[in-house]
Amino acid sequence: MALKIVKGSIDRMFDKNLQDLVRGIRNHKEDEAKYISTCIDEIKQELKQDNIAVKANAVCKLTYLQMLGYDVSWAAFNIVEVMSSSKFTYKRIGYLAASQCFHEGTDVIMLTTNQIRKDLSSPNQYDTGVALTGLSCFVTPDLARDLANDIMTLMSHTKPYIRKKAVLIMYKVFLKYPESLRPAFPRLKEKLEDPDPGVQSAAVNVICELARRNPKNYLSLAPLFFKLMTSSTNNWVLIKIIKLFGALTPLEPRLGKKLIEPLTNLIHSTSAMSLLYECVNTVIAVLISLSSGMPNHSASIQLCVQKLRILIEDSDQNLKYLGLLAMSKILKTHPKSVQSHKDLILQCLDDKDESIRLRALDLLYGMVSKKNLMEIVKKLMLHVDKAEGTTYRDELLTKIIDICSQSNYQYITNFEWYISILVELTRLEGTRHGHLIASQMLDVAIRVKAIRAFAVAQMAMLLDNAHLLTGNMQRNGICEVLYAAAWICGEFSEHLEDPNQTLEAMLRPKVATLPGHIQAVYVQNAAKLFATVLRKHEGATDSQAAQETSQLLVERLPLFVQSANLEVQERASCILQLVKYIQKLQQKDVEVAEEVSALFAGELNPVAPKAQKKVPVPEGLDLDAWINEPPSESESEDEKPKAVFAKEETKHSRPRHTEVDEKELARRREARKQEQANNPFYIKSSPSSQKVYQDAPGVEHIPVVQIDLSVPLKVPGMPMSDQYLKLEEERRQKEKAEKKKKEKKKKREKHGKGKKHDSGPESEEDITPAHHVDIVTEEMPENALPSDDDDKDPNDPHKALDIDLDNLLSGTNCRPLADTEKLPVRTHRSEPLKSPGEDGDVESVPQEPKKRSSKEKKEKKKDKDKDRKKSKEEKKKKKKHKHDAEDEPAELPAEEPVKSEETNEVATPPTSTSAEEVAAPAPAPAPAPETSLAAAPDSEADEPKDAEPEEVKCSKHKKKKQKKEKEKEEKKEKKKKRHHHHHHHSDGGEDSVQNGTMEEEEPLPPMSNYCLLAENSYIKMVYDIQGNLQDGSQVVVSVIFENKSDSFLKSMEFNVLDSLNSKLQRPEGAGPHDGLVVPFQLPPGVSNEARFIFSVQSIVMPQKLKGTLTFIVKSEDSSTHEKLDFKLHFTCTSYLITTPCYSDAYAKLLESGDLKSSSLRLEGVNMPFHHLLARICFHHHFSVVERIDSCASMYSRSIQGHHVCLLVKTADQTVSIDAKCDEPSLLGNVLDEIKQTFSQC
Amino acid sequence: MIKAILIFNNHGKPRLSKFYEHYSEDTEQQIIRETFHLVSKRDENVCNFLEGGMLIDGSDNKLIYRHYATLYFVFCVDSSESELGILDLIQVFVETLDKCFENVCELDLIFHVDKVHNILAEMVMGGMVLETNMNEIITQVDAQNKMEKSEAGIAGAPARAVSAVKNMNLPEMPKNINIGDISIKVPNLPSFK
């Protein structure tokens, strides 16, 4: 035995080991590849031997070769062999090789499961350690599933060395096998308080990684982390925790307030720069999350900025870089505090380190103002000239353009200057951003009307000097600007000084070397220029010159007709023929200019880039539905996309009018107009439609004013932007002087009254733009809301880890782990035996995904009216299904991830209830009293079982409902259910309830907005008021009349005493005091609904209207005339309309600063938060914008367009509501009403 | 998360590569080459952070590197890592190497890349920082080496002898290829701990 071992190692002596291999490679510098290939052959031989030591040696060498870029996957099986050696030495070599070259695609991995399991449970801690380390690199979903339980056991190992590795690897397991997160989480949380600091650190590490991706699920751990932060002395752990808090604070502002103090202390006390920096970073995050309405944190901001300045001034480049990075975060919310350090940042632009210069550039972006824009850009232009690397220069170029064009050219006071800057930038050699410059030129020229003359002059100059730009075209992106130049000259040719010359420049033979799409624009715009030239000459009756121009075109265009580019060829030949025809006409002395210019008549409006996407989907149109029968799989493969011709889309080319027949044209135009008028989605240019858009938050409107010619419009020669700087300064001086004069005048007038005040430094508002310009807003569809759709990457593995963990831990709605959620444990047979009773649920499972997908779709789409029916059906189905599956926990885990998704989707806004009323299948098609022949409440439709006679329905229905409630209470203990309820009054209210709630949470108590109007022994009236979406001055009052008597009620007449502010709308011809006839009669026990429209003037105050209902009671033997008085209470809430709002639009709205704020505190509210939200949504017509745990933002809009925003927070029975609205008295009243709602319950 | 750890010398020769996400061998070499180009053209006295231009993902990731004598130590990390923390981690790594190899130089890394991997495995596991305490790391590494030695036992003796003989006979042993000041100087950085 011993002999054999010795013999084995003697064999081994003469094999190459790793050192020999390395040495050999170093000795064969010339023929390295050849040498290595012989080595690989040797290794192959060694791997064939039985001796494990030889194999391990070979694998070790392979690992080295892998680093050099050789594929060693062919040896995967041998690696597994070495891994399974009983000796630690070889095992380690095997695991190292595996960790370097195994991945999910390696098929032998599945052979390793048992070996790894064996190693994990090895008595030797280093065997376990090596296995864990290796596994962390190549874990696959299968391995994760099979080994999760073993690893979880190791988390409680006696040795901290194993514990920390096991804890750390859990993160990888979660990623590959998300189902393991819930069962493993309690133990992971336990490890946060492990006695060993290494284990603790590992647990913090894992939770931080998890929380970074899905922070909201980990908010409940905040107190624990807070404790750790104040107790731990390990800087690594502290940094991780502080970073984690940075991710959590945006979700929970209260946490931020608590953090400020300990963080400030740390900033003052720590000597570790890394910790200091992270503290500053998190304080910034806190300040950002608090930025709304917490002004007294200026000390903290000051501290941060101060510390950052120290970092930036440090000689250590790393600190400088990080300081700038953090500074840019502050800049977003507190630009003022950063702007005072402008000197420092400009200084950094001169730094030799490119990374630092780039960071400084980022900062500059946010620091510009009207006052300093020109100065900063001038500085940047200097850097452009100095810059050596093209990357940095390109970066500078894009930054200049970004800075200038930001927020709709907000900071540009002089567009001539900007055009000159753009023209100067075209002189950059070898830049890739020609396209960017071109689009800026186009944008400015189109949208700033006042600048066109100047722009055209500059562009003509560019075209004339095109040879300078196109030096070597192949790698020169700058020729893109010629595209813009040609188009601008053509489109606005009326501003051209000398169109003839420009035309000539555009038809030079050199043009034919330009890229095709640019040539196409050249040709098209040459035609436009031609039209202008013709008109000019014909106006001056200079037929000779006009004919010369035609001749020029006829001579030059054939060059383009021969172009290889299809687009150029087509346009050129078309225009050439046209010109030839015109030439003929000219020779006959026919006036053609009118007709030719008619080809290009009309103004083009800029359209927002997102406009197309924002066109709302018309009601009832399902874009996902098949129009025809879906083709079979095989068919679709045959249908390959046809080749597309010129892909380059010339955005600005107008449709060509090929039709000459005037009559036909006119007819078509008329037809189109008709069509457009009827099409609600056509973007009309009428002022009313524009107003709708401008009402939307965040869109500034810049008034149109005449050009103020204080600056000469023409600058001879190529423009120098510097000139403008001087001119601008002079202009400002002048203005200032004038202002002072005026002030003095005023003072003189007032004489002695006013205090002597210094005009002080120039403030932002003092600077008036040189040109008052109309920056044309880009067109958008009427109903589009400004929003960014930032869809998360669906492939992100972290998405699967978005699992609610709170209910695992404690609390009232604790949901224990279901049996199926337990981690798979190794058994002899992994397939559980099926009992016959389980067959039922197996059957039910496949239904799940189908149903779910349609449900999700439903929530995303706002296509409600269609959904209503669908959802009802679903509910029915679901309900039935639930009854079947009542006691089957198997259904729970599958539902889990979806639930959290649903939670997210609560933020998706519902459609307004009133719109729904119209769309609902309720038999009240229009909100007019005459037509509101409402039959039975439509909730009956939900319950097909309730096919009882009408008379008994109401009462019975109620009883049934109560019974159901009880049942639900019982079920609640078993498990939560998707709740739905019907209230036989709540017409359309149902959806608004769902809107505010997590559907999966506890059932809501029934709610109704209908409140009692009046009641006597014969009749009961309940009513609800809804704003009218279509008309800003109308509200609809729905009244349900219920006959309580045994007699027949008829000839009901509804009348209200109008006030100045509110009037009942009566049919034409009726007197102001006439009552309205209720359009139905009531048999005994029956109720019915009628609607009345009121017009209101002011909606900021609640008010009451007195009224009477008169009716005739007809019993078998007698009939009496009865009367019932009532008071209609118009609350401010009733003027609000549930309106969806996206969170970013909401944020913009809050930032705008136009809103007045107010707040409200409610004590002793002990209802679940989602009930609370649901109540606000339902009773006060709000919609939830965003909900994060016990904090939610809500939005509503009044019929007259006031925005009402609420921030609702709750903490142990106290609810605080911070509200903002542009109408303070409306807001006050709404808040009062909310308060009242909650005082009642 | 740490996405990758690379060590290469002033000429771009890889001395250690550890990717915590899978790439093909070709891509790995490309990443090493590109990273070398990015890092090597930077001056000594510029900051140690690099953004963009990286094959590894892009957006969130950052390169953090340190240059010691002839070697570059480059970590590619995402935003969950503290930049200064990683710089300190590199420092800990190099100091640990220095302790384990006794005055570490490039040649140690060239001939004992497996040992370097073993040391690294005690610091970073699957892209997450496992241990930052140098003494703890060294204790664990030593314990494992001791185990390896005891396993080799008698059987290992002849192999060791042969290896020693080989080294004696071959003139190009590390000592002879003296590349001057190759030893990695470990400056003291007080910023952390």
Automatic annotation (TrEMBL), chain B:
<keyword id="KW-0813">Transport</keyword>
<dbReference type="Pfam" id="PF01217">
    <property type="entry name" value="Clat_adaptor_s"/>
</dbReference>
<dbReference type="GO" id="GO:0006896">
    <property type="term" value="P:Golgi to vacuole transport"/>
</dbReference>
<protein>
    <recommendedName>
        <fullName>AP complex mu/sigma subunit domain-containing protein</fullName>
    </recommendedName>
</protein>
<dbReference type="GO" id="GO:0005794">
    <property type="term" value="C:Golgi apparatus"/>
</dbReference>
<keyword id="KW-0472">Membrane</keyword>
<keyword id="KW-0333">Golgi apparatus</keyword>
<dbReference type="InterPro" id="IPR016635">
    <property type="entry name" value="AP_complex_ssu"/>
</dbReference>
<dbReference type="GO" id="GO:0030123">
    <property type="term" value="C:AP-3 adaptor complex"/>
</dbReference>
<dbReference type="InterPro" id="IPR027155">
    <property type="entry name" value="APS3"/>
</dbReference>
<dbReference type="GO" id="GO:0006886">
    <property type="term" value="P:intracellular protein transport"/>
</dbReference>
<comment type="function">
    <text>Part of the AP-3 complex, an adaptor-related complex which is not clathrin-associated. The complex is associated with the Golgi region as well as more peripheral structures. It facilitates the budding of vesicles from the Golgi membrane and may be directly involved in trafficking to lysosomes. In concert with the BLOC-1 complex, AP-3 is required to target cargos into vesicles assembled at cell bodies for delivery into neurites and nerve terminals.</text>
</comment>
<dbReference type="InterPro" id="IPR022775">
    <property type="entry name" value="AP_mu_sigma_su"/>
</dbReference>
<dbReference type="GO" id="GO:0030659">
    <property type="term" value="C:cytoplasmic vesicle membrane"/>
</dbReference>
<comment type="similarity">
    <text>Belongs to the adaptor complexes small subunit family.</text>
</comment>
<dbReference type="InterPro" id="IPR011012">
    <property type="entry name" value="Longin-like_dom_sf"/>
</dbReference>
<keyword id="KW-0968">Cytoplasmic vesicle</keyword>
<dbReference type="InterPro" id="IPR000804">
    <property type="entry name" value="Clathrin_sm-chain_CS"/>
</dbReference>
<keyword id="KW-0653">Protein transport</keyword>
<feature type="domain" description="AP complex mu/sigma subunit">
    <location>
        <begin position="1"/>
        <end position="147"/>
    </location>
</feature>
